[in-house]
Each structure stands twice: as C-alpha cells, then as structure tokens.
Amino acid sequence: MTAARFALSDLNAASASDFVAALAEAFEHAPWVAEAAAAGRPYPTVAALHDAMVTAVRRSDAERRLAFLRGHPELGSRVRRADLTGASQAEQGGLGLDRLSAEEFDRFTRLNEAYRAKFGFPFIICVRRHTRDSILRNYERRLHNDAAAEFERALAEIALITRLRVVALVDGPGKPATAGRLTTHVLDTAAGRPAQGVALSLYEIGGSARGLLAQAVTNADGRTDAPLMSGEPLRIGTYELQFAIGHYFARAGDGFLDLVPVRFAIAEPEGHYHVPLLATPWSYTTYRGS
Amino acid sequence: MTAARFALSDLNAASASDFVAALAEAFEHAPWVAEAAAAGRPYPTVAALHDAMVTAVRRSDAERRLAFLRGHPELGSRVRRADLTGASQAEQGGLGLDRLSAEEFDRFTRLNEAYRAKFGFPFIICVRRHTRDSILRNYERRLHNDAAAEFERALAEIALITRLRVVALVDGPGKPATAGRLTTHVLDTAAGRPAQGVALSLYEIGGSARGLLAQAVTNADGRTDAPLMSGEPLRIGTYELQFAIGHYFARAGDGFLDLVPVRFAIAEPEGHYHVPLLATPWSYTTYRGS
Amino acid sequence: MTAARFALSDLNAASASDFVAALAEAFEHAPWVAEAAAAGRPYPTVAALHDAMVTAVRRSDAERRLAFLRGHPELGSRVRRADLTGASQAEQGGLGLDRLSAEEFDRFTRLNEAYRAKFGFPFIICVRRHTRDSILRNYERRLHNDAAAEFERALAEIALITRLRVVALVDGPGKPATAGRLTTHVLDTAAGRPAQGVALSLYEIGGSARGLLAQAVTNADGRTDAPLMSGEPLRIGTYELQFAIGHYFARAGDGFLDLVPVRFAIAEPEGHYHVPLLATPWSYTTYRGS
Amino acid sequence: MTAARFALSDLNAASASDFVAALAEAFEHAPWVAEAAAAGRPYPTVAALHDAMVTAVRRSDAERRLAFLRGHPELGSRVRRADLTGASQAEQGGLGLDRLSAEEFDRFTRLNEAYRAKFGFPFIICVRRHTRDSILRNYERRLHNDAAAEFERALAEIALITRLRVVALVDGPGKPATAGRLTTHVLDTAAGRPAQGVALSLYEIGGSARGLLAQAVTNADGRTDAPLMSGEPLRIGTYELQFAIGHYFARAGDGFLDLVPVRFAIAEPEGHYHVPLLATPWSYTTYRGS
Lengths: 290, 290, 290, 290
What we know:
The structure is a homotetramer.
Chain A: E1 6-7, H1 8-13, H2 16-23, H3 31-38, H4 46-59, H5 62-70, H6 86-94, H7 102-119, H8 132-142, H9 147-169, E2 170-171, E3 181-183, E4 186-188, E5 193-194, E6 199-205, E7 210-217, E8 229-230, E9 237-244, H10 245-248, E10 259-266, E11 272-274, E12 277-280, E13 283-287
Parallel strand pairs in A: 1-2, 3-11, 4-12
Antiparallel strand pairs in A: 3-8, 4-5, 6-7, 6-9, 9-10, 12-13
Helix pairs in contact in A: 2-3, 3-4, 4-9
C-alpha cells in the first residue's frame, strides 16, 4: 500500500477549492460531492468525512444522482477504457477485466446491455471486493432486482468503492477497516508440535481456471511469516489452500496423504479468515478458526 | 465380474490336455506352464494351482524363461496390438493404453526402447493394479534396476498378472484375494447423525488430467449403497473424493465450505480403504479408517 | 437374557385361563388385563399383544385404573419389599434401589410421600431405562406436573415397564425393540490403522459416585468383541469411557495423553450409541457416530 | 510475583560482604557459595551469576559438597520444619507438604529413611516443579539410582531450586526463563466462530484426589483473559480441564455432551502448553497446540 496523500487535519484546514481538488478522484466526475462535503468540515475522523460525501450523493436531486450513476464506466468494456479515471482503471485492471477473452468480453457485453436496458445506468460493483466469478454471479442475480432495490444497491456499492478511495487518499484518526486477512497454522498432531517447513500454495478457484495467488513455507511456529492475503479487501470467491504434507512427513509420492487441498469460500472481504490444518500422515482436521 | 469358467474339482479330474487347454490363456503363449502344472494335480485350492504354475516358470531353464518374458507384449504399443491375447488386450484397454495421445505414445515408445535395450525383454507390469501415472513412475524407477533385480521383478509381476487370470478362470476353495475396496462414510457432527443425501464424486488425479470414476449419494447411514470401488484390484495412484457438503448443509455458494476435496493415494491394490468425512458447515476431519 | 417362556402361537391357541396365567406377571396384581386381552386373540405380533393389554388398562373404568396404579410398589421402599412381584424386585434390584444408604432412603421416602400426597398413587417409572440419578431428576421434575399430565405419564411408564416384561415372556414375530447398544472404535491416526490392544473402561457417572460398568480391550479392528452395553435398554444417564491411550502408545506416565476420558449422556434407551476415538499421542477426536 | 530485591548492576558493584549477604538465601546454609561467586564479578547476566554459584558447588571438595547436600531439609518432615530457611518453607508449603495426612507423612518418612540410608544425604528435588504425585514417583524411581548418578541428580535439582531463588532475588538482563504457561482456546465448529462464555475448570489429578486450580470463562475470542497457569514453573503432573460445553450449547443435562473433560500430563515446567477444544454439541477435537 502506498501512503495516503493527505492528512485529515490539513483537509479540515484547507481552502474549499483545495479540499475539492484533493478529493476529486474519490467520486468520479462529480466534484459537487466534495463541494457539498467541504461545508461540513471539520471532520473528526476519516470515516465521518466519507459518510458526509456519501450523504451528499443520497441527498442530491434525482436527476443529478442518475447522471452520477451514469458517469460510471461499464465493467469490462475495453472500448470505453479511455474514459476511466485512474482509480477505476487500477481497480478493474487488478481483476483482469482488461484482459478478457473474446468469449468473456461477449458475456460482459451482453450483461452490460441487458442491465443498462433494464435500469438505465451501468452496473456498479466494488470490484476490489470480488473475484471475477463473484462479479458474474452478482451481475446475474442483480439483473432480477426491481429498479428501486437496484438503485439502492448501486449506491451501496458506490459507498464501498469510494470508501476504499478515501482511505487511500486521506490519513487520520478513525479510518474504516477495509482490509481483510487470510492466515493459516499447521500442526503436526502425530508429533505434538507445529509443523515447520510445510510448503503451501493458495489458489483462486474460478469457473474456468485456477490462479496461483501466493506461496509460502511454514515457520517454526507452523505459521507463515506474513498473512497469505492482507492489506486489501479479500475478494469474495472460492479459494483452495494446498499443503504439501507428504513432503513434510517425508512420504511424498508414497504415503496416504501428499498434497492436502482445503477449499473454502470467502464472503467477508474485511474479515479475518484463519484456516488451520491439524495433520498426521493419515488424517487431518481443518476449520474456520480465529 | 463374470463367473469363472472352470471348477477346480473339474480341472483336478480332467485329462491333461483338457487341463492345459482350459488354462492356456493364463500364461501367454506358454502352454508348457500348464503342462508342468498338470502333473502336480490334485490341487486343494485355487491358490495352490496358481503357485504351481508360477513355480513351473521359475524352475524352467534360463533360455525358456527368457523366451517366455520376451513373449509378453510391449506396453502401449499400438502397432503390436494384433499379437495380444484376449486377456492382455482387455487389461491394457481398461487403463486406456490403447487410447494414448501421440505424445504419450512417444513417451511409452522411448521407455520401451530404453528398457528392451537394457534388459532384453519387454517391460512387464500388472497393469490392472496401476493407474497410468503409477505405471510411468514404476517404469522410470525400474529402468534403474540391475538385471538380476529386474528379472525378479518381472517374474513377480507375472505372478500378479496370472493370479488375476487364474482367479477369473477357476472357481473353488482358497481363491486368493485380488480385489480391493474403497468406501466412505459421512457424519454430520453439527447434528450428531449420519449425513444423508451428500452427493460425492471420485476422481483419479493424473499428471495431466483428472478422470471421473464414480458418483454416489449417501444413504440414511451416511454411507454409499455400494463401495466406490470394489470387485477388482484398486489401481495404485492418486485419487480425490469430492463431497458436496455445501449443498447438504443448504449453503451451496454461500457457506464457508461447499465442495470438500479429499485427496489421497492408494498403494495397496488388494486393501480396504475407508475414507470417512466428519463435517460441519465450518470444519471437517478425514482419515484412513477401517 | 434368558429365553422367553411362551410362544405367541401357543398363547394364541391356549385356553383363556392358561393365557391369563401365562401373562399374570406382566401387569402386577391385575389379572383382568390379561383377561381382557384374551378375548382379542389371535395376535399377529408380540407388539400387538402388548398393545392390546395397554389398551385394556386405558379403557378400564377410572376406579379400576386408579386401583391398578395404586397396586404398584413405591420406589426404593425397603419396608414394602415383600409385596413386590418377582419382576418388580429384579428391576429395582438391578438399579441398586434395594441397597440405598440411609440418606438416599430418606430422600426417596420424602419424594414418595410428597408424590403420593399430590397424586394419590405411587411414583411409577420404568426403572430399567434409567440410572439412579435420572430417576431422581425425573422424580423431581414430575412432581411439578398437574394431575392429568402425571396420570398420562404414569400410564406411559407402565406401557414401557410391561413392554419389557411381555418381550421377556413371549417369543414370536414382531417383538418390539427394547434393547440399546453402546459401541466404540479406536483408530490410531498417527499410524493410519485400527488401534489394537487399547484397554478401556466404562463408568456410570452419578451425583455421588462413579460405578464401573464394563472393561474391554480393543481387537485387531480397533473395536471391542462385544458391545460395551447391549441386550437391555440403556439407562438414561451420564457415562464416561476411559481409553488407556498412553499405554497403547507405550508412553504411560510420560506422554501428554495417558487415560483419555470421554463423557457423554445417553438419552435414548433403545438407541445405538457409537462413540469412536481417533487418537495420536498428542491429540484426539471423538463424536457420536453411527 | 513479588519484585526481585536486588539489581544485578548493584550486586556487581557491591562490597563482597554485601554481595554475600544479599545472596545468602539462595544456597541454604552455605555462604561460601556466594563468597566464591563474589570473586568472579562482574556478571553480565543473571544466568551467568547463577551458573557461577552452581560451578562453585561443583568445584568444592567432596566433604564440603556432601555437607552441603546434608544441610538440605527432608521432604515432608514436620518435625524438622523449624530448621528450614524461609525459601524452603514457602516452596514445600506451596505443595501442601506441610499438610500431610498421617498416612502420607508415614510414606514420606519411610522414603526419607530408605533414601538417607542408601545415599547418606536427604532427598533433594525442586518441589516447585512437581505435583505431590510427581514427587513420590520421582522419589521411588531415584531410590534405584546408584550413588554417582544420584549425586549428579541431587546437584541438578539444586541448580533448579537455586535458579528459582536467584531469579526471585536478582533483577537484570539475561534472567533464565523459569515460568511455564497453560492456555486454551474454544472454537464452536458448528457455528464457525470462537465459543464465548464457556465456563472451564482446571484440576490437578492426584493419586488420591483432585484439586481445583483455576476457573475461567472464555471471552469473545474463545480464550481466557489470562493463562490458566503462568508466572511460575508448571508442576509436572496430570491435569484435567473441564469445559462446560453443554451449557454453552444450551443443552446442559439433555445433550450428548455436557462437561467435556480433557486430561493431559505436563512434563516441561518451563514450557507453553496450549490445549484447545474444537467442539459441536456432538463431537470435539483436542490437541497440544502452539
């Protein structure tokens, strides 16, 4: 994570125009949001600042709100990529939405068209909280919403998107928690001690493929030196941890257990997921721990 | 399994030529083996009959024994398929050795050439006891043997191959156990009862692909009505059982656990592998049971 | 269990007076129950015969029914023991109700007096389905019932008591299941095989003491040759199984685990309780299995 | 723990007689030990200071060493209590050796006599590292030692005893770790979260009785606010943790599991023992964790 660029105390003391300029990137193409928030200063916390901006959107008149929603880029739309703000580009790029296959591009295009035809604004989702599979699943579910519910949902997603942006821009007390954490712990229950030296790999399990996200080796306490994922929202989706237990027990290729796959879903991007493994060469237990 | 075609008591009482004709298929292109065994009748058990035939091979002179080994077909050799006895054809076909890709065919061809150049007879292995991956692993390992060790190994494999054939041909007391068994049992430890209605799939995990071997749904006792594999030797290799736990707990797609994969190796083709799952929506335990 | 003394087919064919004589012991001091049931013959199953006798009690007039309830012995009443039928004596003796300490005798006496004062008949419970602790707990709970609910409860207990007696007296098709079963299974998950030679002890855990009920050693399959309890109703109560795991792992006195106690309650006297242990020298898992 | 009374830096700078006076209590009735250590100053760590004192004992001549051993009090000897230094009195009192029953007193007396007859000095053991049962077991084992082995063993115990005393007297860098720790963690694997509000009790399991050592209730993370034992050496012996799981699952008295006892041995007084429980109303797993 790069350091936030502004101190909340400086923003509280700045001129209105400097305040608006500083936060311009947070709400795309809508400087009026920062303008409205400028009047409510000073803010005691970063969360209060963000809340004020979200409230400005909610309180704006219907026409402006709709124009605001329409100002968002369409998901996976390569042809319109030039219009994205830097922030949108980075977010969608992180998910690989700028590297879609022709087939995936077509699927997104069809969904985008159906969605815009039904609701009159583009599909908005906080992509940094989702895997590609989760986005598609949400897309297909939300197409069944009625207009009012979907309007609310779009605003809620904007709150999530801009919360991440405000947190990245502004430093100060009361920053909302936006990062999740995935950790593990391997115990050798045949020997009654932490399992040191177990190689493990973390994959995202997608509809079409699996992607390697992280690799690590357990230390003397049976843990990894750093969390397997952290510092960002965890993407909602399905994951698989593979533990090279056979090699640890010096039985690779010969024993009953070799690579132990543990597959699980993440549903809370800001949560702490602890997924331990208690193993012998012949058995194991895994669970969501704490 | 089809019924054996001969009763041991009938073979004990038959003329020598009828005896030899009956058992011709057991030792490929080597009627002298049955001829030697005919003299030792009566045999109290099917195992004793088979032992006598194996002993006949071992006691034959070196030249005949080598000719006997050379009479075996090469593994995965499409061009020589016409030479296979019906039994060899069925055994290699079951493994898909008659459906090799060009690349796999080349790999087998290179191994066959290297093996024959070193040992002077074709690579012999009881294919019905191995997955394709296990055959390749054995092939590469056995190429490092010295001539004496490998000669012993080839005879041991012939004993395994012909044991299966004799057991298929002859009925009577004392049949050697040649079939393994894979079973499972799913317990819902959140509710303290067997988990009924869990869909499960068994895959073979190969170097290049995974093949679906069986599917079943657990019954009121949390077991499958029939073993997942039985009636044959289990093929040495790596397997994965997938339990649709998320659907059972009515949380598919939303819960922490959805498909639970349990990956394990089978090393004893004639063994009983019991692989139970004790599960809640948030945890599970698996082990080699009995 | 001793063999039942009468065949249902013989009872169906017997004279009414022989029928009544045969079943006299089932309903204490109430030959009229068997007399009523004699008229309904033939009975296709033992269960149908017993149902008919219970129905005869339910259909009798209020005075007779009350007299019938009053004919039952008081629990733990040493002074009236001479009045018990042989069956009542054996049932109460099995529980140790004839070996009460002075304090326990006083407690039962007080409960008996309070109960009789409130309901006008003695407390009736199928003692063979309860530990002493469970009887006391039930006694104290049932004292809070209103008269109608407790009258129903007393009849339900009589049905349970007499079902056991009829099953002991009469052989034939359709015998109700009256016996429960407690079994175990010990797996050595460090070695991936059944744990053979584990000594285990079963205790009843009572308010004041613990009583040893059974001892066994696991066989080659990690099970005991016979169930730990069977052939009778399991007594509702709290139990503790102790597994001598330390000795099995040759670490008695030195290891982390030595005697592993597993404490559990039995609530279904006719149920099957399977309580396995999956153990290493450093860990174990236990659960209600099947 | 009370604060140590002297700073190592002060002791390094003190006059020899002040140094000796400060440390007099560490080695009972043997001021010559501190005198020898005074000459080796300055000591960089508390551990180095203690090592120097132990070395002084080892290097002293045989007669003095024997006199030193003989200066130690006999275990459990009420009649000689007046001779104990304050430190010895506190240590033996903590174990209840000053509250022995007549029978226990006799047993210790017989052991003391046998030991002194064989070895010529009293039985010395670091009582703060042992339960009473562990002391008796050690006593009976050590009686079988030969003189040389037992002499070494007595000196090793003196090093352990005096290490605790020096650590209590002197503050400074490099204090040896003398305290162990027992912790637990309860997870509700039916709900996939820490089990908050589980009452638990820790008992010492002795030959004749069980003593309650600690009680606690789990917090929001499923842990206890403080370790169950800490700040002192853990006493070698057998313990039982009882978890009130039935009450937590709102099934006390009715469910399959109510009080879950976990019995384990502690063998490393300075170690960290983590004993978690993963529980549902019907199953649990426990293990030595980290």
